[in-house]
Design brief:
CATH topology of the largest domain: Aminopeptidase
Largest sheet: 13 strands, mixed
Number of strands: 13
Radius of gyration: 21 Å
Distance between the termini: 32 Å
Structural class: alpha+beta
CATH class of the largest domain: Alpha Beta
Strand content: 25-35%
Low-confidence stretches: none
CATH architecture of the largest domain: 3-Layer(aba) Sandwich
Number of helices: 12
Length: 375
């Protein structure tokens, strides 16, 4: 490839399609990479259709060298994040780049200039819309394929960001535990203690017949439990309902658990089947036959991702995470096809949750890093 490097805003459907399909160029030779499900991502990148653009704004850029696209980035003014944290942080996301510090610096520079013009004080990322979406640069564990909703990047991305003077904002850890890795005696003792602490508490699965009410409970728990979490932003009842509608074919009510006492919701934990196992096999393409693979193989995936745990303040000392994990552990042993569970992601300074997972036999298999730079 030859010619001058150009950074060009994405302005039309053709350019968005190039932006959408570009990652495959940089992941050849990385067998663990899972291609994005194009039909899922495409509308989210469209300012006229994407949910993000209903409350926030952003700009997308492509890097060109001559006639070849060599990188991409999004600059994101996430107003929901700012309403929750008031930290002046804007985000860069959807970052993909050739192994060239000059190209990365040009892309990051374009995003920084846009964020600065928006009045923001910090550029943070990568985060594809928010840190609750795919986020972070992978530092280790490149042999492990990411589970559904998790980020994955080539090894050289860390060097590109650090060469552009980005520093660590926060590390996100990924833990996994296999069917035979549970420390049975330790887990049994912890469960007995939790049973005593949580007397009168019941754990039940999602009731699909009362989705609006269940979504309202989830929004209430999330708002209180995640209020002080670094980088988190609220998820509304309407958004929970939209997720349920979008993924209704893949929802297993047994994987969405509520803890209650006298009908009052105290906490929840949400797991999803690792649909990335199938998406990787179909190359991220639903047509012509990928959709059939998703439908027919969805109940045979081998992994579960436990990704959302929320406990209200009044129930923090009841041992609810142990009760939830015990239910998933039971499911793991009832379903012969299931082999492992992933806890992801977990903030590096969430010492209580990390200690619990390590005590029952979980191992950290990957670390993702969010970077930031003052503008």
């Amino acid at each position: 490839m030859s010619g001058p490097l150009r950074i060009v805003p994405v302005r039309d459907r053709s350019a968005r399609e190039i932006f959408l399909r570009l990652p495959a160029r940089f992941y050849r030779g990385l067998p663990a990479w899972v291609p994005p499900l194009l039909e899922d991502v495409r509308p989210q990148l469209d300012p006229a259709k994407g949910d993000f653009f209903k409350h926030s704004t952003g700009e997308f850029y492509l890097a060109w060298r001559g006639d070849e696209p060599v990188g991409r980035i999004a600059a994101l003014h996430n107003r929901r994040h700012l309403a929750a944290h008031a930290d002046g942080a804007g985000f860069f996301g959807f970052f993909e780049c050739e192994d060239d510090p000059a190209t990365a610096a040009a892309l990051l520079g374009a995003a920084e200039a846009w964020l600065r013009a928006e009045g923001l004080k910090v550029a943070r990322g990568p985060a594809n819309f928010s840190i609750q979406d795919e986020a972070g640069v992978l530092l280790d564990g490149f042999a492990h394929a990411p589970m559904a909703g998790m980020g994955y990047t080539p090894p050289y991305y860390r060097g590109l960001l650090e060469a552009a003077h980005y520093g660590k904002a926060k590390d996100l850890r990924v833990y996994r535990i296999g069917r035979g890795d549970f420390q049975a005696d330790q887990f049994a003792r912890m469960g007995a203690v939790a049973d005593r602490m949580a007397q009168g508490v019941t754990v039940r699965p999602l009731n699909m017949r009362e989705l609006p009410a269940e979504a309202e409970r989830m929004a209430r728990i999330f708002a209180e439990a995640w209020r002080d979490n670094w980088g988190a932003q609220p998820i509304t009842q309407a958004e929970f309902l939209k997720y349920a509608q979008a993924y209704r074919l893949f929802i297993n009510p047994e994987l969405i658990l509520f803890a209650e006492r006298d009908g009052e919701p105290l906490g929840m934990m949400v797991a999803i089947p690792d649909m990335n196992e199938i998406i990787q096999r179909i190359g991220g393409r639903l047509w012509p036959l990928g959709w059939w693979s998703l439908l027919t193989q969805r109940k045979r995936v081998t992994g579960l991702r436990l990704f959302l745990l929320g406990v209200r303040q009044q129930a923090r000392r009841l041992g609810l995470p142990v009760l939830f994990i015990r239910r998933y552990h039971e499911l793991l042993h009832r379903a012969p096809h299931l082999r492992q569970m992933e806890f992801s992601w977990i903030l590096e300074d969430n010492h209580e949750t990390i200690a619990l997972i390590e005590r029952i036999g979980g191992k950290c298999v990957q670390t993702l890093r969010l970077y930031e730079k003052a503008l």
